[in-house]
Amino acid sequence: MKARVKWIEGVAMMAESESGHALVMDGPPEFGGRNLGVRPMEMLLLGMGGCTQFDVMLILTRARQQVSDCVVELEAERAESDPKIFTRIHAHFIVTGHDLSERHVERAIKLSAEKYCSASIMLGASAAVTHDFEIRPA
């Protein structure tokens, strides 16, 4: 996997993925940013959310669960001093669908957290990563 990050101005950057997608990252005004895009550390957290949601949805689909929506709400804490790594990350899944099995949802989240989600497992090397979920009827 390859990626490219090009400086634009101040602390703004254009990030390009190997698959041909681009987005702007920027810093806060106190560091010269113009708030044009997400912060790089936010991207890490968003990436983890996307990675784990991908796994959970794939597992639930293969289990023939009738999911109509899945939201992952992430909350993270960072260290007070440099390097300000993530020290705690919590992922709360809100899974909506018809006749969803609590056992299947719990299993999908556990498999993602412990086996499949590269981002969660990698970030879990330095942060306490926890998960919970709620099921809503469609």
- Poorly predicted regions are none
Percentage beta strand = 35-45%
Round the mean pLDDT to the nearest integer and report it.
97
Number of domains: 2
**What is the radius of gyration?**
17 Å
Total helices: the number is 3
Order of helices and strands: EEEHEEHHE
Q: What is the total tally of β strands? A: 6
Core attributes:
single chain; 138 residues; alpha+beta; N-terminal domain of TfIIb; elongated; OsmC/Ohr_fam; OsmC/Ohrsf; KH_dom-like_a/b; Putative redox protein, regulator of disulfide bond formation
Summarize the structure in words.
It comes from Thiorhodovibrio frisius. This is Putative redox protein, regulator of disulfide bond formation. The protein is of the alpha+beta class and 138 residues long. 32% of the residues lie in helices and 38% in strands. It has helices at residues 40-62, 102-116, 118-123, and strands at residues 3-9, 12-17, 22-25, 66-78, 86-98, 128-137. The strands form 2 sheets. It has a 3-stranded antiparallel beta sheet, with no helix packed on it. Strands 4-5-6 form a 3-stranded mixed beta sheet, with helices on one face. α1 packs across α2. The radius of gyration is 17 Å and the shape is elongated. The mean pLDDT is 97.
